[in-house]
Specification:
The complex is a heterodimer of chains A (about 400) and B (about 375). By secondary structure, chain A is of the alpha/beta class. Helices cover about 55% and strands about 10% of the residues of chain A. The chains are: A alpha/beta (about 400), B alpha/beta (about 375). The interface between A and B is large, with 49 and 53 residues.
Chain lengths: ~400, ~375
């Protein structure tokens, strides 16, 4: 991180998180004003190679969360749809393509990019979205392709291909940065990234306690940091503080969840950002805490060794590139570890890579765990994709089955 | 030499009876049949294994059982393919190959594996960083996995020579189809949109050498006739234009298809697999590096729109019909750029959304489009 904070002992993780987020965007603007290149990155791009070259960058997806949560997404979505982008497309993409036209949002403004880095380990739509950005803005696109993997584990051919791409991308980024890669610095960034992933997992591990110390919806706030600043040393302080807070609450048997945690569920998928408050409150009202989620776990990339080969291996296993058995095993294991009573699946209209296997995953996971599930329709950024009434009904249904199961012991 | 109408009748018959074609092949040869999901599959490997590659481009069906696996916002071609797997329509297929070209295809392969366990599902990934050597090497490795799986299905080893020979056979078919679309463009009095589509589509349900011979036979017959560019000339772009009623409407309102940029049609045969430079598997993989002009292949330069503009010039095209497969995100992302490129050149375009059948207002809109031209 460019500016280091000295943490006051009384400081809470949420305060530091807020400061780091402000600084993240301020840094990007300052760089832009100084005439330095600023990049846009997809959320799971191997940011370590960008960070190690001391390039500044922001995340459009993260920006979309903020804009959507503050109810400003329709304005930008309308602009993109006016240009011919279909309502079928990812709402983050539409929002961002619309934002690119304006370059300013009341909720949060990010600088327009001088280069873009795209990695399709989250989905293939980002390739098309970023292709269009690159063409429209006339800026270089750095692409890392993580191929879909129908086998349980990625094979060596995938690792080799990704490693070679990392080398190629470093060459492209060196041109953008105007300097050569310092491989000692890269190893250091990878070490920090590894530590952050571990610290994040550690903080999250307390959520298995009963009651879970956290209202699971707060996961989504902290997630911004593991997405935006995996390779920055200052992030670890937040995760360490968060782990400490969770540890303390666990010892005291307390929770930040408002009300009694009657039921615990796994949340599958991205938040419904435009209805974050409504979805959170509905769960609270029903005594349901989301104490496990597949989404935040997806960002905890770990390396076996601090080489490009190690990085390639880490990214080759990205969750959204995996086969159905892996998804079912992962969710079942998570639900068992976190002692969940059920699962809630977000059929996110924006996210085909998550949706097109969701019925099969939900059914398979339920068969394996013996726990019920509900699927609701929603969208990560387009408010037109969500119905409060349907969400409430699905929650009622899930709660009813979880209550029956509890009675039967 | 057969009369062109006789040859056309054969094509129409084959294009309308894919299941019969598969059955006939299996009965006559004792060989196996392998379904090839859209959009691109190394069918050369299936042929090299002595099996019958069958194109699976959906079909007219209600969606019932597939709804247990996929939500409604899945493109109709893959919905139909899954439905056909689940309801037994594909029972004569011994395996299917699924290329992970888009997010839906990635998942559909997995859904198919779970829902249709009796048919072997072979999935692989195309590299998107296809212009660097590492991409070609990776695809060679992926094709190696496909080859090994096909060897298991066929029970025979696929030799280097068999693959080399298959490349020559398939390149011959590509060449014949390239010639056909050029000849067809000069004989739109005979080659209506429905016939043009049937000639190309039938290649997915025929043994390649037979298809090549018949396509050449038709091109020869047409070439002997005087040029007749009947109709207002349009170019079709998109994944596919398979709906016969829409194709009939196009000709009913005085339009003719002068060229196409469809994944099911011209994009399949624009580029050959190299016949020199490395082993057969490497050359087969090299095709994906050479390939251009498809929404499914990474291209930050967005060359597809320029290729469409070049074809507009080459084939004297007056308007473009954008055949947008509903819920096909790769194509939907390309649309605004194509729209802008056409507008900048003053080329009229008609955006037609299809989900197996053309949209309700298709007739009126095609009529209006024809009047503009």
């Amino acid at each position: 991180m460019k500016g280091e904070y000295t943490l006051n002992e009384d400081k809470k993780s949420s305060d530091v998180l807020g400061m780091l987020q402000i600084e993240h965007y301020q840094n990007a603007f300052e760089k832009k004003m100084d005439g330095k290149p600023v990049g846009w990155l997809t959320s799971l791009f191997p940011q370590e190679i960008v960070e190690a070259l001391d390039l500044d960058y922001v995340y459009p997806e993260n920006h979309c969360c903020a804009v959507a949560a503050r109810k400003e997404s329709p304005k930008f979505i309308d602009i993109a749809e006016g240009e011919g982008y279909s309502v079928d497309l990812c709402a983050y993409a539409r929002l961002n393509l619309g934002y690119t036209e304006e370059g300013y949002a009341e909720s949060l403004t990010i600088p327009l990019p001088d280069f873009i880095c795209c990695c399709n380990n989250i989905c293939n739509e980002v390739i098309k979205w970023y292709e269009n950005l690159s063409k429209k803005l006339g800026i270089p696109m750095i692409m890392i392709d993580i191929p879909y993997n129908d086998m349980y584990y990625p094979d060596q051919a995938r690792v080799d291909y990704i490693r070679d791409q990392l080398e190629y991308a470093i060459g492209q980024l060196e041109k953008v940065a105007g300097r050569k890669m310092d491989y000692d610095r890269l190893r250091e960034v990878m070490r920090i990234s590894n530590e952050n992933s571990k610290a994040w997992s550690e903080a999250m591990s307390y959520l298995k306690n009963k009651p879970s110390p956290m209202n699971g919806f707060n996961l989504f706030n902290y997630m911004a940091l593991i997405v935006c600043a995996r390779g920055k040393a200052s992030s670890k302080e937040v995760f360490d503080l968060l782990a400490e807070e969770h540890k303390q609450l666990s010892i005291e048997g307390k929770t930040k969840f408002k009300g009694e945690e009657e039921y615990r569920v796994m949340w599958d998928g991205i938040a419904v950002w435009p209805f974050l408050g409504f979805t959170a409150k509905t769960l609270i009202k029903n005594g349901i805490n989301m104490n496990a989620s597949t989404y935040p776990d997806a960002f905890a990339i770990q390396y076996d060794n601090l080489t490009l080969e190690g990085m390639a291996k880490g990214y080759a296993g990205s969750a959204n590139t995996r086969c159905i058995e892996y998804h079912i095993d992962g969710r079942s294991g998570l639900m068992q570890k976190m002692k969940c009573d059920g699962a809630l699946y977000h059929m996110n209209r924006s996210c085909k890579v998550w949706d097109m296997m969701q019925y099969t995953i939900a059914k398979g996971t339920s068969e394996k765990t013996g726990k019920p599930y509900a699927i609701f329709d929603g969208d990560q950024a387009d408010p037109r994709g969500f119905s409060e009434a349907q969400f409430s009904t699905r929650i009622d249904g899930l709660k009813e089955v979880m209550a029956e199961n509890k009675k039967e012991g | 030499m057969r009369h062109y109408q006789e040859i056309i009748d054969s094509f129409m018959d084959i294009a309308g009876n894919p299941l019969r074609q598969v059955k006939d092949f299996k009965e006559h040869t004792g060989g196996k049949a392998v379904g090839c999901f859209p959009e691109y599959v190394p069918a050369e490997l299936v042929y090299a294994a002595g099996m019958f590659p069958v194109g699976l481009w959906g079909g007219d069906t209600g969606i019932s059982r597939a709804k247990e696996y996929i939500p409604a916002f899945c493109c109709y071609v893959l919905q139909a393919d899954l439905e056909f797997g689940l309801n037994g329509t594909y029972k004569d297929l011994d395996a299917v190959i699924v290329p992970s070209l888009c997010d839906t295809l990635k998942c559909l392969g997995q859904d198919f594996k779970v829902g249709v366990p009796e048919i072997r599902m072979i999935q692989f990934a195309y590299p998107q960083m296809r212009k660097i050597e590492a991409g070609v090497k990776f695809l060679e490795s992926e094709y190696g996995r496909v080859r090994a799986a096909l060897e298991e299905v066929s029970g025979t080893k696929i030799t280097e020579k068999a693959i080399s020979d298959a490349i020559i056979v398939f390149n011959g078919n590509r060449k014949a189809l390239r010639r056909f679309v050029d000849v067809a463009s000069e004989h739109t009095d005979i080659i209506t949109p429905v016939i043009r589509h049937a000639v190309i589509k039938s290649g997915y349900f025929m043994e390649k050498p037979k298809h090549t011979a018949m396509v050449d036979e038709l091109s020869d017959a047409l070439s002997a006739l005087p040029v007749n560019k009947k109709g207002k000339r349009v170019l079709l772009t998109g994944i596919m234009a398979d709906d016969e009623s829409m194709l009939r409407t196009i000709s009913d309102y005085g339009l003719s298809v002068a060229a196409d940029d469809l994944a099911q049609e011209t994009r399949q045969f624009r580029f050959d697999v190299p016949t020199k430079g490395g082993g057969a598997m490497y050359r087969l993989a090299k095709w994906w590096q050479i390939f251009e002009g498809c929404s499914l292949a990474y291209d930050p330069e967005k060359k597809r729109k320029d290729m469409i503009l070049a074809d507009i010039e080459k084939y004297d095209v007056k308007g473009v019909i954008i055949c947008m497969m509903k819920f096909c995100d790769p194509e939907e992302y390309d649309y605004p750029l194509i729209k802008d490129a056409l507008e900048s050149k003053g080329i009229p375009a008609l955006y037609m959304e299809t989900d197996g059948r053309a949209e309700a207002q298709a007739q009126t809109r095609i009529q209006a489009f024809s009047e503009i031209l």
